[in-house]
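Quick one - first record:
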Amino acid sequence: MSKLPKLNAANPKVWLLVGASVAGVLIIAEVQRRRIKAKNSVKVDYGAFVTRFELLPFAPPPPPAASPPLSRLTFAVNDNIDVKGYMTGRGSTDWKRTHEEAEKTAFAVTAMLRNGAKCVGKTVMDELGFGILGENGNLGTPTNPCNPSHVPGGSCSGSAVAVAAQLVDFALGTDTFGCVRVPASFCGVFGFRPSHGLVSAVGILQNSQSLETVGVLASDPSILHRVGHVLLHLNLVEPKRARRMIIADDLFQLSQVPIQKTANVIAKAMEKLHGYTSPEHINFGQYIASNVPSLKVYDEELKNQKNGIAALKALSSVMLLLQRYEFKTIHEEWFKSSKPGLGPEVSSHVREAINSTPDNMKTLYQVRKEMRAAVQSLLKDDGILVLPTVADPPPKLESRKVLPAGFCDRIFALLSIATMSGACQVAIPLGKHDDFSVSVSFIASHGFDKFLLDTVLDMHSSIEEALCTPASLPSPLINGDMDAACLLKEKGNAAYKGKQWNKAVSYYTEAIKLNETDATYYCNRAAAYLELGCFQQSEQDCTKALALDKKNVKAYLRRGTARESLCLYKESLQDFQHARVLEPNNKVACQGEKRLTKLVK
């Protein structure tokens, strides 16, 4: 038997071999560690519950009486809703430490029990309800069943996860600035924010009495319909009225989901339904800028022009100011006496609220009053506003510090509409896009909750059918005569000067069909799209123009404007900076760069 050769320690190849072997062992160990961690990270019940228990429903009436409407349904409640004998922790160990168990059960919970549902536990929420991502450093973050590596949304994170994971049929939560609607969207379930003030707040630990309301998360529209009727004491039958669906085109411009998978699905679903008029379209931001005059106090841009995006940003700013002021009014004494050790992000928000001294409080409430009147005037008793529930997909876990630029501006612009008007809203799941849940929302006037719930139930099967219908493919472009394309461009220019924006878009589109290689056609159409508030289309056209002509200053300026309107501030700043490099003295570029630098900071 031959002997193995001796290894020479002085030979560098030996150490190379040893190093490679050690590295291989370390890699295998790391892979194994990650597998074990991943296996262990599958939390019990998705980490949705703070505590599990059973509250049996009230005894049903004897036959021949009908069974209660919520018989055999199970539900959970958010941890800011009282259940007798259990701690209401509000997602905070410090709150739990400084308070006693609840002495009574919240009115909303009792209503569910009385109507046949069984309560099975309390669910995790953001600390003190401050947050829309659903992450809780003390109690753990519930796992989003749709996207486990991404946030579930908050503050009613556990409630949404419990419904999405089919652990319960429905859950109760509260909604101030999206606490039900955001997790409903991120977890792919139905979320209902009732009209403000219609559901009793007895037994609810609120952050904002003039904005917050009890809400519902449910797995399907029929359950949502039944729970909503019980919660609001609604009549089961009322005369059916015609419905006007009003699509907020400018708000869908904020969404990253193609309109073919959102607004177009709703329009398609309406085609086969009786009692629905053809969909109307509106630039909702501009409508608010014109009909909520007190917003001008909170945004300089609104004083000289009717800027839709600026109006929505101002509206969301008022919402947050009002929430902070009312949180301070309710909880300042507790905060100063208990000195809670909150998570860093929550602590900064709470301190901001406690230290806030907003000027002119009357104006904040005046904006709320005007907003309700404006929405009521638009929707009346037969209108439904259609808009995206959120603008962006759920961020990755623990990515709060690196959220996409403009994420909060976009999401709060959408959420502030129902919050500040007190209107009722339902978030409706519409399948998936790029593996993330898609959600659109219906909003009805304050007090028209039954009309809204009936509409959602009435349209559900048609929406499901529309989702299964493939979108029609665009017709192929035609290559044609250059002179004809140039003539169409001139007609487009004339229409643009005459402020006939839609006609201008049509002419430029026909010109592009004849000649796809002229950057000017795309750039001009982008200008018309900007006037129409079609910011995504404008951005796309400018990008095409720059692919054809990298020195097109107008394309950089228009794309920068479009991106700013979409709250893509970093990208917008880069466009204005590019324009300045090409034309150092361009006033629009200089002003844009200065403005966007402040926004980015």
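second record:
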Amino acid sequence: MVGPQYDLVGNPLGAVRTTFEKAAAAAAVESGGRDPVAAFRSKDWGASEVFRSFLFDQGGIDRVPVLDASNLGLIKPNTLVRFRGMVQDMLGNEFYAGAFKDGSTWRTNKFTDFSPFTMPHPCDSHLWERHLFHCVPVPGQNSWTLESSPGPDLRQMSNCLSPEQREKRKRDGDDDAMDVSENGHGESSSCSKKPKEDDVQISSGPAVMPASEGVPEMNGNDHHIPGSSFSCLVKIYDMPDSQVKLNDVAEFIGVYTFDPELAAPNDNSDDIMFDLIEDVTAQLPPSKVPRLHCLVWRKLSSQDFIAKQSVELLPSLLKGIRQSLISHLTQLLGNDGLAAQCLLLHLLSRLRTRVDVVTVGRLSLNFTGFNRESASIFGNHLNTLIQRLVPYSQAIPLSIEYLNTATLQPRKDNKTGRLVTGVLQQPQGTHLTFDETVLQSGSLTSKGVENSVLLKNLMESLMVEYDFEYYKMEMATDVQMLTLSEGKSNILPSDLVVPFRPSTVPAVTASPEELESWRWYLATVRSLPQSNEPEILQTIQDEMVSAMREDRSLGCSELSRWLTMAQITASSFGEKSISMEHWQMVKELERLRKQRMQ
């Protein structure tokens, strides 16, 4: 083990080299001096375990700075950082000189962009590989999720500040003290000083990344795609294929590098590491896109954004939270209890499984009876609440102009080898609200027709078509979709259509404690497993057959929706299987809904 004298946050590479040298020395004894590091290919020699123990067993993760656009250039290179983001593009594998022999000593280049030591030529060396992922801030990530992992105050961590920042902080502190004594108040003089060209400004808002020719923007220069131009190139080691997938949301913890000198390596460089840099990374130069050499990573779900609570899942507890959420939704929707019940089922839905082209578990919702005025009142309140309840959400105004101009489809740019994102490239669990009240008569261009087809396909099959120029490929996704429209939407055919009938104007607020409990409830219930008792399932099937005999218009899709609604209803009470009580509740919801539809 690495002793406490090593600063795992300020000098992680020191711990990496020390553990490697110890492991190589031990392997040399066991192998009799015959190539002791051959066994370390695609294998951790103990370095990752040192960091994993420090981060999770000793609580060190709270001491690791969070990398984002606001502190890019502020953090000292080769320190430990963590980055939460979505895998926007998978760039394949990169070969690098993982280990080489320097005299009688074996050294490693793992977790670095280039060798920290001069590599003799020729020398015994091993070629290893690492996986490259272009990661971006999660599209539609809501602000409350950032509170679950805030990280330390970087300005108080001198071991993670770059030398320029440490000097600047010292100068600013001295100047501020002089201003306080001379002016008689605590106003910082840094607001009135003109920064030097080589100073790095610290701003409270997101930093603007400098533009660069040949560096494709995350959004493909499309103003309809929300998000930041900030991104990170994550390099993962010793990972089996397919563990990290496109659009996964994960937390990556590793060594941070951001070095303008690597933007254009010298053709005459003697460093063999430069010869192995893949062409695809040339489109993401280190002067513009930081690197993170990952030591530890973990996928994130909705529950990872919730405050950790060791709560026993008692049905009485879930029932109480369910009732408070239903009550709030009812008031928010103008005392429309039916709409509130259906909205809760919608928020608890998720894709459970796929059987051929059939998706099991989804429940898209279409509220009809909206116009521009009601959408500006109820729609805005609804969007605000959804933003405060789910980790990722986006509201999309579905106008003719939007359909004709927005880039919904992700596409591959074969000239750069990069995947250019589109609006529909979303992480699992994203909530999308479409406002059709802004839709007016007009003509759709070919792009508008294409976008309409993409949205309809997403609604019906939870699949997004990616354009790879020479061919197209459908990729599975799992998003919740709510449509607000005047009549039944033709562009977005939802599973459940509910006429909206408010009787009052909403005037309701929720406390932070209530919001926290509802977030926990939604994340917990959505993760509950589902199973069905054979006897109950047989009874439900018999009732479905009888219903089809009485109403010949009923189809398999509607019966499947009834069963989905019953399963979600059972889960909403904390139950794993459907009871006849849950089934009767769904039948009553259907009766009231059809009564409104007439």
